[in-house]
Design goal:
The complex is a heterodimer.
Chain A lengths: L1 H14 L3 E5 L3 H4 L2 H6 L4 E3 L4 H13 L3 E7 H4 L3 H9 L6 E5 L17 H6 L5 E3 L4 H13 L4 E4 L21 E4 L4 E5 L3 H11 L4 E5 L2 E3 L3 H11 L1 E9 L4 H12 L3 E7 L9 H7 L4 H18 L1
Helix pairs in contact in A: 1-8, 4-6, 9-13, 10-11
Chain B lengths: L2 H35 L3 H5 L2 H11 L14 E4 L5 H10 L39 H15 L5 E6 L6 H12 L5 E7 L2 E2 L2 E2 H4 L5 H7 L3 E6 L3 H11 L6 E6 L22 H13 L1
Parallel strand pairs in B: 1-2, 2-3, 3-7, 6-7
Antiparallel strand pairs in B: 4-5
Helix pairs in contact in B: 1-3, 1-4, 1-10, 3-4, 3-9, 5-6
Classes of the chains: A alpha/beta, B alpha/beta.
Bound molecules: thiamine diphosphate (TPP).
Chain lengths: 306, 281
């Protein structure tokens, strides 16, 4: 995901001279080093100083530039107050990219795993929050947030994503897409988790509608309400805490617009730990097997209710 | 020189020699640990002598009572050098050496970055730039409780980029925390390159002194020099910073003073070559 992100930045940099890329001593891991090599005069590595980096980006934005900052998601959160008070309050055109999000830092352990970032970014007024699911979508989402005017957060995970979409024009800011139709249960997911959900759905006896929701904010309310209406029960799955992320956002919308039973899959109010990414996904129920089991459970509940 | 002084000097000489021996085997154990579990090899090798000297010759601590109230504290602010700290703690029997093989593995007590679940770890780290603040809290608590324990914080030179570092440097001087010692692993590298190319640190000593600290520079691979500096700090009326000049990847020639080893798992050939070198010394 980081590779396609880095390549996309270079492509966008060729089109728009105002794009400035900033990082905080993680040019290599975020793949912004390609941009640095191509446009050295529009790149700034501030050293290990995430807060300063966001402040500098704010100043660049106030001067007509389009700054894109990219660091590990967990360390971007160190600048949360700068993001809230300077960037968002003034509606500044700063693009923030958090890499190694979710459990993808795996063996580095909990300090490097961002499981709260969607929640704390989403709560900030004016913030756009995007969690793309495959390479094509990352490329298009990167372009979309750069073209969008205003603060935006792009959340990226590991490199070797499965392919979710064929062709182009797969991403539109604020749009959720139904990637599989079904009538028993609707699953909302984003990031790489959508691929696991699809795998679960294709193996399951439960007729499952899978709605990929790459834009957590602004949320595609119509699509979410329509899916909930069509199935009557909902599952949300994401590589994030069950508190405040996509599941939280969907619960907020449905609680008033179409109250239904909602089951959220994600980390259950706990920190991560060291381990392989697949060990950690298994532990937190983010595998096709576990999602499949949840589908059946939720289906039984549905039969009960109706 | 009196006989007594001569005796203690001899004893110390002996201890230093023994520690140097131990460091050789710990270096080897770091290589093996990282080879199995992954992690920041180069960053661990540069600060081994510092951590080992602290734990073997300087700090008052008790491996059988990791939570002993009066122990001196150590904070690995550059938490990614955890393999070095774990290897030293294992050598001291804070936990069985066999456990080193579980580094970074699922369900291990040895997390990728320091975590309180590991016996002997005094503070969590992994996010850079936070250890000195924690150290101030501990040093302040010692003062409040009338305790004599001292607090040692080990930081990377790249880590000095963080604003929080300078907030706490300023605060420690303001509080005149003479029971607080900061050691900077000055290996000249950070993740993306040479420290002076990413963001200038020079004059590091001048900056620390101008903030009101006692500061000096030593060879960070010399046990004698490290010990001397730490002893000297015992008598300072100010918080003390020791800028320890080191070599990233120390001991493995093809990693030395490069950033190749920042975070690396060696391939089979490299591993064998490294083994050979470490066994030869
Ligand atoms: C707040 C924060 N930002 C970024 C990182 C990622 N990171 C890990 S090690 C490192 C470089 C550290 O350089 P230095 O302090 O000089 O230590 P060295 O490895 O060179 O000994 C970076 C940027 C981090 N761990 N924490």
């Amino acid at each position: 995901m980081r590779i396609i992100f880095g390549d996309t930045l270079v492509r966008l940099g060729g089109r728009n001279n105002d794009i400035v890329v900033l990082t905080a001593d993680v040019a290599k891991p975020t793949n912004t080093n390609k941009f640095a090599e191509t446009y050295p005069d529009r790149f700034l590595n501030v050293g290990i100083s995430e807060q300063d980096m966001v402040g500098i980006a704010a100043g660049l934005a106030l001067s007509g530039k389009v700054p894109v900052v990219a660091v590990f998601a967990s360390f971007l959160m160190r600048a949360w107050e700068q993001i809230r008070n300077t960037v968002a309050r003034a509606d500044l055109n700063v693009k923030m990219v958090g890499t190694h999000a979710g459990l993808t830092s795996a063996d580095d352990g909990s300090s490097h795993q961002a499981l709260e970032d969607v929640a704390v970014m989403r709560v900030i007024p004016r913030m756009t929050v995007v969690v793309p699911g495959d390479r094509q979508e990352i490329a298009e989402a990167t372009e979309a947030i750069v073209e969008h005017r205003g603060p935006a957060y792009l959340r990226l995970g590991r490199d070797e994503e499965p392919k979710l979409f064929e062709g182009e024009n797969v991403f539109k800011l604020g749009r959720a897409v139904t990637v599989r139709d079904g009538y028993d249960v609707a699953v909302f997911s984003n990031g790489a988790v959508t691929s696991e959900v699809l795998a679960a759905a294709s193996r399951s006896k439960v007729s499952t509608k899978v709605v990929h929701v790459p834009t957590v904010k602004p949320l595609d309310r119509d699509a979410i309400v329509a899916a909930a209406r069509a199935t009557g029960v909902v599952v949300c799955a994401e590589e994030h805490s069950v508190i405040g992320g996509l599941g939280g956002a969907i619960a907020e919308v449905l609680s008033t617009e179409y109250p239904v039973y909602i089951r959220r899959i994600g980390t259950e109010d706990v920190f991560g730990e060291s381990g392989s990414h697949s060990d950690l996904l298994r532990k937190h129920g983010l595998t096709a097997d576990h999602i499949g089991a949840v589908l059946e459970e939720v289906q039984r509940r549905r039969a009960h209710c109706s | 020189m009196s006989r007594a002084v001569e005796r203690t000097e001899l004893l110390q000489l002996n201890e230093v020699l023994m520690l140097k021996d131990k460091i050789r085997s710990i270096r080897r154990s770091i290589l093996d640990t990282v080879n199995l579990g992954g992690g920041h090899l180069g960053s661990s090798l540069s600060c081994l002598e510092i951590i080992a000297t602290l734990y073997f010759l300087k700090m008052r601590h008790n491996p059988y009572r990791p939570d002993w109230e009066d122990r001196d504290r150590f904070i690995l602010s550059k938490g990614h050098a955890a393999p070095a700290l774990y290897a030293v703690l294992a050598e001291l029997k804070y936990f069985p050496k066999e456990e080193l093989a579980t580094l970074r593995k699922f369900n291990s007590r040895l997390q990728g970055h320091p975590d309180l679940r590991t016996p002997g770890i005094d503070a969590p780290s992994g996010s850079l730039g936070q250890g000195l603040s924690i150290g101030i809290g501990m040093a302040l608590a010692a003062r409040m409780r009338g305790k004599r324990y001292r607090v040692y914080v080990l930081m990377g030179d790249g880590e000095c980029d963080e604003g929080q570092v300078w907030e706490s440097v300023m605060m420690a001087a303001h509080l005149e925390l003479k029971n607080l010692v900061l050691i900077i692993d000055r290996n000249g590298w950070q993740l993306d390159g040479r420290t002076e190319e990413i963001k200038k640190k020079v004059p590091l000593m001048g900056r620390l002194r101008s903030f009101g600290w006692e500061a000096y520079t030593i060879n960070g691979h010399s046990v004698e020099k490290i010990l001397e500096a730490l002893d000297y700090a015992d008598h300072s009326d100010l918080p003390t910073a020791i800028i320890a000049h080191t070599t990233k990847g120390k001991g493995i020639s093809f990693l030395e003073d490069t950033n190749q080893g920042h975070k690396v798992r060696l391939d089979a050939d490299q591993y064998l070559a490294a083994l050979k070198e470490l066994d030869k010394v």
